[in-house]
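Sample entry (266 residues):
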Amino acid sequence: MGASISDQSLRAMERYTHGHAASVVSQHGARTVEDSAQFLLPFLRPHVKLLDVGCGPGSITRGFASRVSSVVGVDSSAEVIATAKAKAAERDSEEDETFDVVFAHQLLQHLSEPLRALQEMRRVCKAGGLVAAREVAYSTMQGAPVLPGLHRWREVYMMTARRNGGEPDAGLYLKKWMNSAGFTSLRFTTSTVTHSDSGTDAAAAKRFFGESWATRTLETFGPQAVAFGFCSAGELDEMAAAWRSWAQDSSATFVYVNGEVVAEKT
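Predicted structure, serialized as tokens:
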């Protein structure tokens, strides 16, 4: 996995709503190429040079490494960013049309200018290459039993993300953004993430997911929401308690939808 671009001193203009607390990094580090980039795998070939933008802990990036000839993972030491966007001011022509595939996972939702980021991802992609992205739609997040704390969590999180310059329903806009960025040939799909006690591993993953969001509510986006006046500290406690109650309920479920797009640079 190369690091030539990631060695640059890069910063995002946006505030990363999730932050980089241990609860966030550990959850992101559990992602795999199979559960987060399955939609892209049929398009990969052994000769491909791939750029993973906003790679975070690199777990997805490492998964690509065994499937393509080379992988470059880029990120910022402080906040997950669209590196291609950050490089726009420099316009380093040596990076034009460098990669066969440019991929971003759950990144565009945090940017105030996702279109600009996609345009820069297009710039560093070779002619005939692919730009791919996967983004969640937070408004689709639903759980059972229906807990008021989880409903309030979703509402407060989405307000906070938008206050920070992002779009928590980015998965619903991927096709529009890609078209606006100049892509005319693309494939849009969706996938559903399900958390349920359907086996030992699934039960552990469900508890991990719930506990992670409980901690993040108290330590990362939650304090931001309080500072913005979107909720009280007491409400954060109620949201975290709801997540922990849900995580320990063996009959509880939680689902949400991701938008996925693969676009060809023609």
